Amino acid sequence: MATFTATNQMYALLYHTNLPKLVDEGIVTFDSEDKTIARAEHVEQAIAVLAGAGGGLDFEYRGYRITVCGDGWVQVAEPADR
Predict the structure, then answer these.
(1) Rounded to the nearest 5°, which phi and psi values hold at 38?
(2) With CB atoms 3.0 to 4.6 Å apart as the test, which of 14, 20, 46, 77 could cross-link to 65 if both were Cys?
């Protein structure tokens, strides 16, 4: 399970880095007043690409394994040595 600090870091990464990119690409919309995210024009294309690439996108951030699945779920795995 991720620590509170790690969770905050991941939230900051998603909110300040990844979310603006997804908005710019037309994958999601973001209402900054309500703090809500919704599907946008290109979301189905993005999900199809992820599914066609083996079901997801994996990357590492500060030792945490991040998996974005084709169905839209995001999984964060804490390093085994923590």
Answers:
(1) -135, 160
(2) 77
Q: Tell if the pTM clears 0.85, that is, is over it.
A: no
Q: Where are the beta strands (DSSP E) in the chain?
A: 28-31, 36-39, 56-61, 64-69, 74-77
Our measurement of the distance from residue 32's CA atom to the centroid of its chain's CA atoms, rounded to an integer in Å, reads: 17
Q: Write the pLDDT tens digit of every residue in 8-42.
A: 887 787 788 888 888 888 888 888 888 888 888 88
Comparing C-alpha atoms, which of 57, 52, 60, 61 is closest to residue 74? 57
**Closest alpha carbon to 74 in 24, 7, 16:** 7
Nearest to 36 by CA among 44, 27, 28: 28
- pLDDT score of 79: 67
